[in-house]
Design goal:
By secondary structure, the protein is mainly alpha-helical. The chain is 69% helix and 3% strand. It has helices at 6-14, 69-72, 83-95, 101-114, 124-170, 174-177, 179-201, 204-222, 228-254, 260-286, 294-313, 318-324, 343-348, 351-371, 378-386, 395-410, 412-418, 420-440, 444-458, 461-472, 475-507, 512-529; strands spanning 24-27, 32-36, 44-48, 59-62. A hairpin with a 7-residue loop joins strand 2 (32-36) and strand 3 (44-48). Its main location: membrane.
């Protein structure tokens, strides 16, 4: 072993002499510092940090490979750095002043203030594709519901033109043929009660398809002109099926957050379109020998309705279908608990449900009394007997339903501009004024035009009622409540025409207009009692 003097070693380094060493010597007694030389890539040198030791140091050879990579290659000067690189780095470090602790803190704080929270955003193309897919699916769902409502309008509009031939074919009078309407009303009421239980057990998709199957069974029974009791039962099936579909469709569209009011108007306009087209076709079959073949066309529409509902809604619940179009469930949907009060009791404890149900009863009753059955609608009977109208007066029924459809589409802007709650008063009061002209002006043309405009004004009322119910009724009860409101409303389609018949038999058909005016005034009073916003108990 060679003995090396520490002071001599340091002075040699200061003079710039760099001995070539392949191995380094390390002291056993004190810490050492590393000095790297650029003359040779394998050169490493250890020197003592102490300068006042009088005894020589024992140095032992130690292979460079035993040191760590960071020790062998400092981060500033690498072993492969050239002379110019080392000189440049040395000059930059010589002129630099080490930052103080305060400067370091300030610079770090400034950097942190400039850092923004990390936000993850999907690529625009992906977001746009998802939005387009959801909009397309939403439009398909809405179109399927419109087709369903068009079938219901087709069903209701076909009864009036076929009613005289039904009476002739079965040799029954008005009192017996009225069983058809009573049966239909009972079907609606049963469906309204069953809808609450079925909606909880089966869900939206299955209940809609169940209703479509009942409508299909109705037309299968009616097509061969069955015995009169079977015809009565078929009207019961029709009322039950339409009650289920009407409640579910109104509840689904009323639960939407985007364009709810416009879609409700379009949904019920499709009903008016079906009711407008059906009398035109049914009138032709009423003059044919096989009048019941009209229901073969109805059965074909019912088959297409069932297929479309199966393909679009796929037996899923309403919550799943709304999530597919990008709408999260409402907070009210989570208000139910396993220990909550019975669902029927919750519904009957809501005061606004009773008010809306009575309003619906009178509204539907007035609508059917004017434009629906019996005998092409009582307004047609009024025109024939009081205004000496001919057989063509039957088309006034189509004019009324045409106005109904037009009003639901054309008045959407006015509804939004004025406010749906306020505009109901305006429409009903204007309808009262038009009914007064029918009452006192003895002109067939004026009466026909006035009846069509009454249809325009009354058309938006039912969609407004559904949309208003969605605002004042808890979301998790809305579909069930709409089933009840619809069922009670359809009861009015039998009750008010029946009362009209009783009044006509005692006072004559001229009593129709005072009765309609009185019912419309009652609608104004009921709507004034309905709150504009939800009241929290």
């Amino acid at each position: 072993m060679d003995r090396v003097d520490s002071s001599a070693d340091d002075s040699a380094l200061d003079d710039g002499d760099t001995p070539e060493l392949s191995e380094v010597a390390i002291s056993k007694h004190l810490a050492t510092s590393i000095v790297a030389s650029g003359a040779d890539t394998n050169a490493r040198r250890l020197s003592s940090v102490g300068q006042d030791f009088n005894y020589p140091l024992d140095l032992h050879t130690f292979p460079v490979s035993h040191l760590s990579e960071r020790t062998r290659r400092p981060s500033v000067i690498r072993a492969d750095s050239g002379t110019e690189t080392i000189a440049t780095i040395a000059s930059s470090l010589k002129d630099s002043v080490p930052p103080t602790r305060t400067q370091t803190f300030e610079s770090t704080t400034a950097i942190l203030n400039q850092i923004r929270p990390l936000q993850y955003e999907e690529p625009p193309t992906v977001t746009d594709q998802v939005a387009r897919k959801q909009n397309r699916r939403s439009n398909i769902q809405f179109a399927a519901l419109c087709w369903c409502f068009a079938l219901e309008g087709w069903n209701d509009g076909s009864v009036g033109p076929l009613l005289p031939v039904i009476q002739t074919y079965y040799s029954v009078g008005f009192s017996v043929v009225s069983l058809l309407f009573v049966s239909n009303c009972c079907g609606f009421i049963i469906g309204a009660g069953a809808n609450v239980w079925l909606n909880e057990r089966l869900g939206f998709g299955k209940v809609m398809i169940l209703g479509s199957l009942f409508l299909l069974a109705t037309y299968v029974i009616q097509s061969p002109a069955p015995p009169f009791p079977a015809l009565v039962v078929s009207f019961l099936f029709a009322g039950f099926g339409m009650s289920l579909q009407g409640a579910q469709a109104n509840g689904f569209v009323g639960s939407l957050k985007k364009n709810k009011s416009a879609k409700l108007m379009m949904l019920h306009a499709s009903y008016g379109m079906g009711a407008f087209c059906s009398p035109l076709v049914a009138t032709q079959f009423s003059q044919a020998r096989h009048w019941s073949f009209h229901y073969i066309i109805s059965a074909g529409i019912a088959v297409s309705n069932t297929v479309i509902l199966c393909a679009v809604f796929r037996f899923k619940r309403q919550e799943e279908l709304l999530m597919e179009i990008g709408q999260e469930p409402s907070e009210d949907a989570f208000n139910t608990t396993p220990t909550s009060v019975n669902l029927y009791q919750q519904i009957f404890n809501i005061r606004v449900v009773h008010l809306l149900a009575v309003f619906a009863l009178i509204y539907v009753g007035v609508e059917v009394t004017i434009g629906g059955m019996p005998q092409y609608g009582w307004i047609v009977t009024f025109i024939i007997r009081e205004r000496d109208g001919g057989a063509a007066a039957g088309y006034i029924s189509s004019g009324f339903f045409g106005g109904l459809t037009l009003g639901r589409l054309a008045l959407m802007y006015i509804n939004k501009r004025i406010g749906e709650h306020t505009v109901v008063f305006i429409y009903v009061l204007l309808s009262i004024g038009l009914e007064l002209t029918v009452w006192f002006v003895p002109s067939i043309i004026e009466n026909a035009v006035a009846v069509s405009f009454v249809g325009v004004l009354l058309g938006p009322l039912w969609p407004i009622l559904v949309g208003h119910g969605a605002r004042v009724i808890p979301a998790y009860l809305f579909t069930a409540c709409m089933g009840l409101i619809t069922g009670v409303g359809m009861a009015g389609s039998a009750a008010l025409p029946f009362i009209t018949g009783i009044l006509a038999s005692k006072y004559g058909i001229k009593s129709l207009q005072p009765f309609l005016v009185a019912m419309m005034c009652t609608m104004v009073g009921l709507w004034a009692l309905i709150p504009n916003t939800r009241r929290i108990a």
